[in-house]
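Work Package 4 report. The design task specified in the project plan requires that, given a folded chain encoded as structure tokens, an amino acid be chosen for each position. We show below one input record used in the internal validation round.
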């Protein structure tokens, strides 16, 4: 079991209420659970992923300690802005698509 943090942006009250029922809301849209099992974390993520298609202009990021991955933490994302996580020298870095000059 490890600390899990979920950060949301522009989600509906339904999503916020669900997360608040399973985790502590530290600040608006920021949730944490100090000792959540991998099975519970997977169930929470499944609900978020199932509900997410009904969200508009929203995003959700979940992070937790994972010793087997580079940098020691795992990251999952839903929504905008699209971010790709790439491994560089044993660390995860966030890469955003380049925007075209206007």
């Amino acid at each position: 079991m490890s600390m899990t943090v979920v950060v949301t942006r522009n989600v509906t009250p339904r999503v916020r209420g669900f997360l608040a029922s399973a985790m502590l809301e530290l600040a608006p849209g920021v949730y944490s659970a100090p000792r959540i099992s991998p099975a519970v974390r997977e169930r929470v993520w499944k609900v978020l992923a199932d509900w997410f298609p009904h969200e508009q202009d929203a995003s959700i990021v979940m992070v937790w300690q994972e010793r087997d991955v580079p940098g020691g933490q795992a990251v999952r994302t839903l929504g905008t802005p699209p971010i790709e996580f790439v491994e560089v020298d044993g660390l995860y870095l966030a890469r955003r698509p380049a925007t075209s000059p206007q």
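The mean pLDDT is 89. Validation will be extended to a larger panel in the next phase.
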